[in-house]
């Protein structure tokens, strides 16, 4: 081998070595980028979990409640209206005074009463209405503690801080310590977080109303969007002639998929509420708005699924005598269904996490009662998170994070369902 050839080989080898080194550097950069992305996600999830986990526990105080007939049913009629409007909070306060008989001053009594939540009376009212035989008896009842007491029990308030900088003074700390020694205060699983609606009091606030609002809204969105999107995709992909009008429709569908979501909220406000008179702040109008927003996503995914079906399937069906409609419905559609379902669930997950369009149609309203139907005033989980995040009370911070955990759980479940459906119905040809 002459010197010229040897030099060429050396140049090529040097060039290959440089390219291999660049490739290795590029791979390492890619691995670092993926690692950083995962690290940031883990840090975010860890922060949300650490802040939200305490919300699944709530502090309760045990009181010996005397269901005094003179307070609950003074006329002895046992009428539901009389029982419902009795001063049950006074019964809880009287029980506190029995535990701390040395508290005599009016101001001290007010501070003592603040240990229990204003919702304690509501719990007692509920118990009496369910069982009027409790009137005239006495029983131990665990009632909600105030949010400041709950924060103290969870270590969110520094007991060693200067009294003027604490939400609880020294007297309140002494009372709480005494309750702990008696075994009359403890943390329990916060079932009310999943069964109660929103409240101005953090210890009473729950996500039941937002969950039901999200359920009704997403159910209607699915019922409205899936048939329309699948029908539109089948027509555009299988039957529509290729001309300037269908090209215009396709361009508009692709453009609508990129429109900011708040624009759909403005459209819903102008058309559905102001023009058609659909009730404001209801799952019905929310579903109509989210249907407009998710239709482009589902149509595009459905068309891609139809394109993935080989032409041989259509030709074979037509060859054995199937009509064009039978070919699409009996052969093409079942094979494209996994991709359609995947796109639909992704669209539903997108709708579940939306806030901006729903703010425009009034679903930001403060809703205490859990909605029972599609025409009842409601809110959804992302909007509930938005409302709680804007609340000044510290106890709402953990409830905001806990609601985010529930929302993320639903999103993970929906995306997992999409993967499983694709695996379950996917066919190979």
For the largest sheet, list the strands in their spatial order: 2-1-3
Task: Round the mean pLDDT to the nearest integer and report it.
Answer: 87
CATH architecture of the largest domain: Orthogonal Bundle
Shape: extended
Structural description of this entry:
- The chain is mainly alpha-helical.
- The chain has 2 domains: 56-190, no CATH class; 208-425, Orthogonal Bundle (MetI-like fold).
- The chain contains 18 helices and 3 strands.
- It is extended.
- It starts with a helix and ends with a helix.
Key attributes of the depicted protein:
three-stranded antiparallel β-sheet, single chain, MetI-like fold, 18 helices, mainly alpha, 429 residues
Describe the secondary-structure layout.
Elements: H1 3-52, E1 57-66, H2 69-72, H3 80-84, H4 88-99, H5 106-113, H6 120-130, E2 138-144, H7 147-153, H8 170-182, E3 185-189, H9 192-195, H10 208-239, H11 244-256, H12 261-273, H13 283-307, H14 311-319, H15 324-352, H16 356-360, H17 381-389, H18 395-425
Antiparallel strand pairs: 1-2, 1-3
Helix pairs in contact: 1-18, 4-6, 10-13, 10-15, 10-17, 12-13, 13-15, 14-15, 15-18, 17-18
Briefly characterize the structure.
The protein is mostly helical and 429 residues long. The protein has helices at residues 3-52, 69-72, 80-84, 88-99, 106-113, 120-130, 147-153, 170-182, 192-195, 208-239, 244-256, 261-273, 283-307, 311-319, 324-352, 356-360, 381-389, 395-425; strands at residues 57-66, 138-144, 185-189.
């Amino acid at each position: 081998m002459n010197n010229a050839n040897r030099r060429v080989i050396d140049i090529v080898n040097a060039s290959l070595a440089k390219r291999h080194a660049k490739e290795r550097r590029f791979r390492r950069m890619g691995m670092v980028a993926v690692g950083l992305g995962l690290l940031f996600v883990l840090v975010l999830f860890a922060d949300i979990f650490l802040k939200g986990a305490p919300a699944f526990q709530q502090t309760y105080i045990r009181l010996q409640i005397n269901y005094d007939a003179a307070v609950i049913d003074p006329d002895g009629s046992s009428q539901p209206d009389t029982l419902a409007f009795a001063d049950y909070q006074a019964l809880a306060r009287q029980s506190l005074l029995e535990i701390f008989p040395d508290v005599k001053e009016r101001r001290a009594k007010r501070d003592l009463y603040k240990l229990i939540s204003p919702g304690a009376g509501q719990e007692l009212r509920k118990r009496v209405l369910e069982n009027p035989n409790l009137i005239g008896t006495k029983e131990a009842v665990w009632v909600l503690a105030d949010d400041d007491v709950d924060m103290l029990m969870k270590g969110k308030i520094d007991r060693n801080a200067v009294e003027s900088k604490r939400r609880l003074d020294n007297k309140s700390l002494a009372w709480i310590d005494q309750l702990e020694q008696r075994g009359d205060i403890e943390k329990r699983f916060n079932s009310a977080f999943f069964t109660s609606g929103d409240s101005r009091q953090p210890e009473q606030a729950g996500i039941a109303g937002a969950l039901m609002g999200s359920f009704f809204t997403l159910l209607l969105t699915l019922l409205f969007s899936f048939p329309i999107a699948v029908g539109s995709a089948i027509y555009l992909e299988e039957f529509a002639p290729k001309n300037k009008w269908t090209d215009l429709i396709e361009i508009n569908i692709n453009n609508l998929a990129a429109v900011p979501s708040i624009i759909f909220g403005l459209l819903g406000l102008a058309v559905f509420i102001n023009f058609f008179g659909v009730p404001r702040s209801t799952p019905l109008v929310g579903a109509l708005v989210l249907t407009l927003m998710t239709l482009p996503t589902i149509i595009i995914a459905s068309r891609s699924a139809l394109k993935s079906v080989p032409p041989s399937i259509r030709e074979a069906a037509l060859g054995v005598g199937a009509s064009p409609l039978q070919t699409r419905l009996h052969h093409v559609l079942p094979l494209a269904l996994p991709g359609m379902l995947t796109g639909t669930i992704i669209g539903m997950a997108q709708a579940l996490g939306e806030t901006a369009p729903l703010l425009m149609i009034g679903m930001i309203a403060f809703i205490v009662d859990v909605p029972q139907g599609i025409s009842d005033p409601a809110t959804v989980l992302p909007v509930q998170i938005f409302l709680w995040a804007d609340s000044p009370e510290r106890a709402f911070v953990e409830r905001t994070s806990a609601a985010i955990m529930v929302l993320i759980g639903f999103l993970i479940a929906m995306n997992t369902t999409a993967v499983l459906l694709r695996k379950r119905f996917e066919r190979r040809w």
